[in-house]
Amino acid sequence: CFCSFQRVTQLEWQDLFLAVYKIHSWVDDGKKKLHAAIDYNVKEYVRKARERINCHIERGDQVLLRAYINEWTKFYQQTAILPLPFMAIDPETTPPAPLPPGCESRTPRQYRSKTVREEMLETWKKVVFQHISLKLLSAALRLVEAERNGEAVDAHLVIGVRESWVALYDQKDCYYEDVLEQYRKHFEREFVEETVAYYKKRAAQYLAENGVINYMSYADRMLEEEEQRARKYLNPNPESVARLVESCVQVLVVEFEDQILAECPSLIAKNDVEKLRMLYRLIKWTPSGIEVVIKAVDNHIRGEGIDDMKENALTITTDPEKYISQLLSMFDRFSTLVKEGFYDDARLLTARDKVNLIFF
């Protein structure tokens, strides 16, 4: 029934549980014979699925991905259903006892037999996936690049490849193996490297053709898009997203940090809040950029304060209360700058307070 995907009645399905139990309990080598029967049927189905997929290899990325994901989805759904009657022949899944104190690893590493579901996934991996995984990955990454270029693509085709990669290697062949290692080593690494290569080709040219301010807007927009793209296409965990964003920051921001920071003093002087917010969103990702921003804010407040004292030299001696009121107004003005231009960053508030102590 599995090989042909024929429907079975509820009674036939219930009878299968009883038949498996009887063979397992009463037939010599019943467990071995059941495993052999399952293995044969699964391999036959998977072999035919591979043939159906291979028919689409030369028909374009989306056609190939759609053919693979269609076959994979049907098969993966069956891995949750078919093994149910055969749970009696599955191995124990309890992990081994903890290591004794002072022992760092097990030698040799402890393995166990696979469950029926794991054997099904292993068969798909060996018969289908390992032969076509690089083609699938390349096709998926080309779709992602097309999306970056503004083309409409079916996101589920990329997501399906990633989900397949994770599911096929999310098996504890060894209790201490990192089950996402293969996903990170291949899908995630290639995704990140392709992203970096994409922006390396474009970032410097965009800056040269459009100037620093427009480049800041471009980099800010691209970082937001790539973070959203990472959440959509990479395995849903903070580490995967962080690795992609950090790589984008390196190629979009760190490479041009000096040019971006050079705009900071003039933007502060103009009180250009929107552009300051954009600059801050970029620089906050870099290791030391915020220190340059703090220095620029410090210099601005000192300069404004000294100029104000010079303009109000007479008021300082004749009307102290009026001067104090002016100082408070200046303090509020700088507070607004930090709040609206730099998201109330505590480090910049501290810089404001240190400088204001000079004038109060």
TrEMBL record:
It comes from the Eukaryota. GO terms for molecular function: ubiquitin protein ligase binding. Keywords: Isopeptide bond, Ubl conjugation, Ubl conjugation pathway. Transmembrane segments: none annotated. Pathway: Protein modification; protein ubiquitination. Residues 6-354 form the Cullin N-terminal domain. GO terms for biological process: ubiquitin-dependent protein catabolic process. Belongs to the cullin family. This is Cullin-5.
